[in-house]
Design goal:
The structure holds 2 protein chains of 2 kinds. Chain A is of the alpha/beta class. Chain A has helices spanning 27-36, 48-57, 92-101, 112-117, 147-163, 165-171, 193-199, 218-223; strands spanning 13-14, 22-23, 41-45, 80-84, 107-111, 138-140. Chain A contains 8 helices and 6 strands. Helices cover 39% and strands 17% of the residues of chain B. In chain B, strands 2-4-7-6-5 form a 5-stranded mixed beta sheet, with helices on one face. Chain B has a 3-stranded antiparallel beta sheet with strand order 10-11-12. A 3-stranded antiparallel beta sheet of chain B has the order 15-16-17. The chains are: A alpha/beta, B alpha+beta. At the A-B interface, α2, α3 and α7 of A face α6 and α9 of B. The structure holds iron/sulfur cluster. Iron/sulfur cluster binds at residues 47-49, 85-86, 112-114, 119, 143-144 of chain A.
Chain lengths: 229, 581
């Protein structure tokens, strides 16, 4: 299948008598076209995927060809958050804060299976997909995704931006970001009931009682929702 | 197994046995061990400190380098392996003597209820973070520790994740308040100083932290008065996950420890398992592993140098250094199908044979590496600006490097010529000729120069092995541990059975333990393995080379400028994946 080239979706040109030519378009479309072709990524690189991200921006794969090479390390200067790598529970509030610091309009690419789903780390300290914390626009599969794959993800994002789909999406509030550590009323399934109840002010945090064998008290563990996941 | 047990006191393993007997008779005993493992001394919590001081200070022992603290929860060991004396936990201190080139394990068995030992921070400063980690994940208390907080998990975490009765999937919500509560931010030593210094938070998301490290500094203008670092922002539970997978399934996890040089991790791990099994690999596998290790080392050093120079503002070098990496990736891809996460090592050999043109291909990479290195060399090595930034900053003296448990290029840049490849050769390192570069300056420039020279030495090693790259099988013919070739499986009953058993049950490693070590790109990469004879690892503890480096970081940067801290962080090459596991 031939993919349509990314070109400004402009209206027909109007030749004018005064010597200057005009192009007609809608403001939205022109803005979306401009935005999609000058993404300023902020790499939130945490792990192995960040190394592949470095490959993507370096000379061989050269992200500049897609207008997205202006890597900014300040969230306030960028509009595309590329989460490259595993996000663990301890890092979750940090990621959330960085996302909140970015000015609108902003987009998020989740690079790699770790960021997308937790990957093969189904463990006690790993966020099972960053969409627990921030809304994601494009998921890029792979562990790590090959550079081509990430570039593909960026092209897909550009198409989405140009189609105006994302703007509508956001207005419709399809994404309800789960706010880690801020909004205890939204339950996060991955976390234990005990902790949620505590945060909602209903209950004391289960005590970690040590029995003679040094094991967690069975009751406290049950209260902590052990075995739910 | 008992047949292979060496006499516990036999030299050279515990040559200081007589002195030990004389000083600590009856309170420290040697444990019988298989020949492949390092010698073990057992003591109790009351004697630990005395024994530690003896081992460090007695010239006959001289264990000056603290390598690792591997804790084990033995509550789920099957019947005959279970501890007979009602002890549940074990603290294994792994020590190394730079003077005698010997490893040692010092062990304390601890009760199930409130396991506690005296802290050894006063004996080996490197023990600091290792003890915090053992407290965090295993719940062993270290009495007298200056700051026994959680390290890898957060303060909202309940329980100790690596205890056998902890459900490995149980997560705990982390809020911003659960992150490191630095006293530094609130406290100043002198109340009059309150308006002179300020607190600066550095990371975890900062371009020079290359991942996820955090340092909280107290600065007086540009000068760092005090600092406190924190890790754990990439604690992916490698050790916890490995207990729920078979021995071979752990290999992909090892790739993601130091993701700049995945092959080295995989090799170190399978070597440890091979030693436990008593399996030897054919020469061709050894040669291939060695070549790929060295290519990985080059890649790792290239990333380190490139990233470090970017932090110093020399962006061009980044493009130069990444070009050869891309070409090496091509070779790795031809070998195993993946660029970064290779999963190439297997117990008993490699996942598959190297490509036919491996030798020519590898050889053709060397000129590119040389050319690009020459570019960097020409731009930096005699560059005045680079010198001003790197020379005399981030200085680590020889004594400090040893006390803080440094290994690898950072230790060698401080003047200690310890390189596992040279001092305890493995794979093919014993058969090749190479030098171990050292420097005595211990500053950022020294670490840069040592890394540059190590890459040249790596190329020397590669060239020598390529010149006589062995033919023959790539894998061991011990089909208890590695899948037999497909033709055999289809034609021979026995091979079919082996295949079946391996696929369904996995490799069965005999009960026992080992500390096995190789030279990672950043230093000694150690694996402490415990097997209970089932198809799953009972406990895997990694000794990540970065861990002591980053633990010492807060001391190294003290008194310097903030901008020097950036240069130092890059030149120590902290890889979050292996730091936090
Ligand atoms: S997806 Fe794979 S390569 Fe990427 S961070 Fe996770 S483990 Fe590493």
């Amino acid at each position: 299948m031939k993919t349509p080239p990314i070109a400004p979706p402009l209206g027909p040109g109007i030749p004018s008598s005064s010597g200057a030519d005009f192009l007609t378009t809608k403001l939205d479309i022109a803005v979306q076209w401009a935005q999609s072709n000058s993404l300023w990524p902020m790499p939130f690189g945490t792990a192995c995927c960040a190394i592949e991200f470095m490959s993507v921006v370096s000379s061989h794969y050269d992200l500049a060809r897609f207008g997205a090479e202006v890597v900014r390390f300040s969230p306030r200067q960028s509009d595309l958050l590329i989460v490259a790598g595993t996000v663990v529970d301890k890092l979750a509030p940090v990621l959330k804060k960085i996302y909140d610091q970015m000015p609108e309009p902003k987009w998020v690419i989740s690079m790699g299976v770790c960021a997308s789903t937790g990957g093969f780390y189904r463990a006690y300290h790993v966020v099972q997909g960053i969409d627990e914390i921030v809304p994601v626009d494009v998921y890029v599969a792979g562990c790590p995704p090959t550079p081509e794959n990430l570039i593909h993800g960026i092209i897909e994002l550009q198409k989405k931006i140009q189609s105006g789909e994302l703007a509508r999406h956001r207005e419709a509030k399809t994404f309800v970001p789960i706010r880690v550590g801020v909004d205890p009323d939204l339950s996060i399934p991955a976390y234990s009931d005990g902790v949620m109840a505590h945060l909602q002010g209903k209950k004391e945090l289960p005590e970690m009682a040590e029995t003679a064998e040094g094991e967690l008290d069975a009751k406290a563990r049950a209260a902590a929702g052990e075995g739910r996941r | 197994m008992s047949a292979t047990l060496a006499n516990p006191f036999a030299p050279p393993s515990i040559s200081f046995g007589p002195v030990l007997e004389q000083k600590l008779a009856g309170r420290v005993t040697a444990e019988p061990r298989p020949a492949s493992d390092i010698p073990t001394l057992v003591t109790d919590a009351a004697t630990l400190k005395e024994a530690a001081l003896f081992l460090r200070d007695d010239p006959a022992a001289a264990y000056d380098l603290f390598l690792d603290l591997a804790s084990v929860d033995r509550s789920k060991l099957p019947g005959d392996l279970a501890p007979k004396d009602k002890t549940r936990f074990q603290a294994n201190y792994i020590l190394y003597s730079t003077k005698r080139n010997e490893h040692l394990r010092l062990r304390v068995n601890l009760p199930a209820k409130e396991p506690a030992v005296p802290s050894l921070v006063g004996v080996w400063p490197a023990a600091n973070w290792f003890e915090r980690e053992a407290w965090d994940l295993m719940g062993i208390r270290f009495e007298g520790h200056p700051n026994l907080q959680r390290l890898l998990t957060h303060n909202g975490f309940v329980g100790h994740a690596l205890r056998k009765d902890y459900d490995k999937k149980q997560r705990w919500l982390c809020t911003e308040e659960d992150l490191l509560q630095t006293e530094l931010a609130a406290k100043t030593d002198d109340p009059a100083d309150m308006f002179e210094t300020m607190t600066l938070n550095f990371g975890p998301s900062h371009p020079t932290t290359h991942g996820t490290l955090r340092v909280v500094m107290r600065v007086d203008g540009e000068k760092i008065v005090a600092a406190e670092s924190e890790c754990g922002y990439l604690h992916r539970c490698f050790e916890g996950m490995s207990e729920t997978h078979t021995w071979v399934q752990v290999v992909p996890y090892t790739d993601r420890l130091n993701y700049c040089s995945p092959m080295i991790n995989g090799n170190g791990y399978v070597r440890a398992v091979e030693q436990m099994l008593g399996v030897d690999v054919p020469p061709r596998a050894k040669a291939a592993r060695t070549v790929l290790n060295e290519f990985s080392r080059i890649m790792d050093h290239l990333v380190c140098i490139a990233a470090n120079l970017v932090d110093l503002g020399a962006l061009t070098n980044f493009w130069y250094a990444f070009q050869p990496r891309e070409e090496i990736y091509g070779l790795l891809e031809a070998c195993c199908g993946a660029r970064l996460t290779s999963s190439y090592a297997r117990i008993g050999g490699l996942a598959k044979d190297v490509p036919e043109n491996f030798v020519e291909w590898s050889r053709s990479l060397l000129p590119t590496i040389r050319d690009r290195m020459a570019d960097v060399d020409g731009l930096i090595t005699k560059n005045k600006i680079a010198w001003n930034r790197m020379r005399g900053t981030g200085v680590v003296s020889k004594e400090h490097a040893i006390a803080w448990g440094f290994t690898g290029p950072s230790l060698r840049a401080s003047g200690v010529a310890y390189d596992v490849r040279k001092d305890k050769p493995y794979e093919m390192y014993g058969d090749v000729d190479f030098d171990v570069p050292i420097s005595t300056d211990g500053d950022n420039l020294a670490r840069y120069l040592v890394r540059m020279e190590e890459m040249r030495q790596s190329m020397r090693i590669i060239e020598q092995i390529l010149a006589r790259f062995p033919k023959g099988p790539i894998n061991s013919d011990d089909y208890r541990v590695i899948l037999p070739p497909k033709e055999m499986v289809y034609n021979e009953m026995e091979a079919l059975i082996y295949h079946f058993k391996l696929v369904f049950e996995g490799v069965k490693v005999p009960p026992g333990e080992i500390y096995s070590y190789t030279e990672g790109a950043n230093g000694e990469l150690g694996y402490s393995l415990v097997s209970d004879g089932s198809g799953f690892p009972y406990r895997i503890k990694v000794r990540p080379p970065c861990f002591p480096l980053f633990a010492a970081f807060e001391h190294v940067i003290k008194g310097g400028m903030v901008s020097d801290a950036v240069a130092t962080l890059g030149s120590l090459n902290i890889i979050a994946g292996e730091l936090d596991r």
